[in-house]
Structures are given as C-alpha cells and as structure tokens.
Specification:
351 residues; Rossmann fold; Dihydrodipicolinate Reductase, domain 2; 2 domains; six-stranded mixed beta sheet
Length: 351
C-alpha cells in the first residue's frame, strides 16, 4: 500500500508545558505572523532563557510588550551577533534568502515561514505530526510549508498511510489574513464604505477573487502550484496527481478547503472518521444531523485542523470528499513553526 508505515515517527507537539531553555529570536516580530508566534508561545507556556524580537530597520527600537516585559525591537545585524539558538523567520522570502544563511553560519537553527527554502532539496519541509522524525541536529534552515498545504496534508497523511493517495482535486477559500495586515485593513475599510487603494486588484468585500499570488505560464497561480509541489515533498510521494484552485474570500478567521481525494484502495467511511478522530492535531466535526461542520469562525485562534463533511464521491470509486478548515496564522504558520522549535529543542538543544 502506498505510504504504509512511512510515518513511524509521527509526533504531536500540542501538549503544553514544553520547556524551551534557549535563546530565541523572532524575525518579523511586528507582523501578523510574528505577533501570532508570540501568542502561541504565551498560550503554551513555552519557556526560553532569552527572547529577541527582530524586524526591519524601520521598526528597530520599537517597544513590544510580552509577558509583562518590554522588549525593544532589534535589527538583523545585531540579532546575528547574538547567535540565538533558534530564529523563527516570518519576514518574507527576500529577507530569508539574505539573512537565514547568516544566522545558520553562526549556529542558529532557522525555521522559515516564507517560500524561500521549501522546495530546495537541501532543506526539509516539516509538519511535525507527519515528518518531524526526519530532522537532524545539523539541520540549520528548516522550511515551514505554505499555510494551505499544512492543514491539508495533516488531514491527508492518515489516509495515505491506510489507503494510499492517487489524486487530489482542491479548491481553497482563503482568509485575507494570508495576505497580511494591509489586506485586513482593505477589507475593513471596504466594509465601512471607504474604498481606496488596496493590496488586491479588485475589492474583496462582498467579492471572491480566484487569484492568490502571481499567475504562472501554465495558467495556475504560484499559490496553487505550491500546494502541488509541497504536498508531494512532505508526503514523499511524487506520483500523486494534484490540481488546485486557490480563492481569496472576505473572511478573517482562517482558510477552508474542499478536497476530493481519490484513494488507491477502497475505504469504509466509518473507518475514515475513526482515522480523523484519532489523528494528532485534528478535530473531527462531522455531524450533519446537528449541523456540525468546520468553519473559520470557530477555527479562529485555534491550533488544530478541523475536518468534516466526509462523504463518498458517488461519481467514481475509491474517492472521498472532505472539508478542511484551520486558522492560517496558527497551524498554518505560527503554531507549526513553534512546534518545530520545540522538537529541535527537545531532541537536539537540551542543556
């Protein structure tokens, strides 16, 4: 069976009270994801010996309050000179390409949220519940997958293990928070009747944009192709057929995905529900009699991935429809990155 036994090192790092005694830097600390990383650290009571908040030169000196302490934002050069044990990057691809190697050279473990290193064969693409076991002590730049990919593969991995994956047809419904603060501002301004220049080519309020990231020569967007390539890399299965349409919607709480999964082997729907209910990092919400199904409204601020609307595709055999929702700033970015940091601390940075 395709994928059987592949995840012998499946781990769940959702458990609170993981103790991180290390020098920790958050690069891009003033952005939406950077702020979410701090919230995840606070909520999970993750400990560190020293914390450094790092951002671009225009934010240097800015004060940020965290856990009843005031931190002054530092610049990149100063942060490198400190030689933190771990640096979580959420500052964009160009920044990561320039600075991640500088941090790695001084011994820092870099966990990067951008797309800069994801498809580089020298660097690992990690969703801890699936493949943290492939990490080693000499991994100095570790890639965090795209937000829409993370929540999807978390739901797909148990299916791959038991049935094998043949083909995926995906439609995403993605929050404006995936674009950043300026996109949230655009939505709220439009909602209040004040339209002006925004980050999207059209208004987003009361609208849907089938356009996330730039268009490529094949007619797909870069976001859609990220889901294709990253999924195959994480699940270590190049033969999976994958096609995606990525859509931006006027929602703040999180990303939603309709996924049509063609399996290699026949399945029992109750067995699939049991798989989802027992998988680490997943909450099953699949009770249509009581109108219980995943929604970004309820996923907002949560670390878990929510799965529901499980049903057979009656048009062809061995095919399942599923609805997957997660807060893209949490498991889709901040939580996943902090989980990787916790794993590396637990296994390779114990003092």
């Amino acid at each position: 069976m395709s994928g059987a036994g592949k995840y012998r090192n499946v781990v769940s790092l959702q458990t609170p009270q993981i103790k991180l005694i290390m020098k920790l830097a958050i690069v891009g600390a003033t952005g939406l994801v950077g702020q979410e990383i701090l919230r995840v650290i606070d909520e999970h009571n993750l400990e560190f010996s020293d914390l450094y908040l790092v951002a671009s030169s225009r934010s240097v000196g800015k004060e940020i309050s965290f856990k009843n302490k005031i931190y002054q934002v530092k610049g990149m050069e100063e942060a490198v000179s400190i030689k933190p044990d771990v640096a979580i990057f959420s500052a964009g691809g160009d920044t990561s390409l320039k600075w991640a190697p500088r941090f790695a050279e001084v011994g820092t473990i870099v966990i990067d949220n951008s797309s800069a290193w994801r498809m580089n064969p020298k660097h690992k693409l990690i969703v801890p519940e699936i493949n943290a076991g492939i990490l080693r002590i000499d991994d100095r730049i570790i890639a965090n997958p795209n937000c829409s990919t993370i929540q999807m593969v978390l739901a797909l991995a148990p299916l791959q293990q038991k049935y094998g994956l043949k083909r995926l047809v995906i439609a995403t419904y993605q929050s404006v928070t995936g674009t950043g603060k300026d996109a949230v501002d655009q939505l709220m301004q439009e909602r209040s009747g004040n339209e002006g220049n925004g980050v999207y080519p059209y208004r987003i309020d009361l609208n849907v944009l089938p356009h996330i990231d730039v268009f490529m020569d094949n007619g797909y967007t870069k976001e859609e192709m990220k889901m294709v390539h990253e999924t195959r890399k994480i699940l270590q299965e190049e033969s999976i057929g994958i096609t995606a349409t990525a859509v931006r919607i006027p929602v703040i709480g999180g990303h939603s995905e309709a996924i049509n999964v063609e399996l290699e082997e026949e399945f029992d729907l109750e067995d699939v529900r049991d798989l989802m209910a027992s998988a680490p990092g997943i909450i099953l919400e699949d009770d249509i009699d009581n109108l219980k199904y995943p929604m970004p409204l309820h996923a907002h601020g949560r670390d878990e991935v929510f799965v529901g609307r499980l049903r057979r595709d009656e048009s062809q055999p061995k095919t399942l429809n599923m609805w997957v929702v997660a807060d893209n700033l949490r498991k889709g970015a901040a939580t996943n990155a902090v989980q990787i940091a916790a794993y590396m601390m637990k296994h390779y940075l114990v003092y």
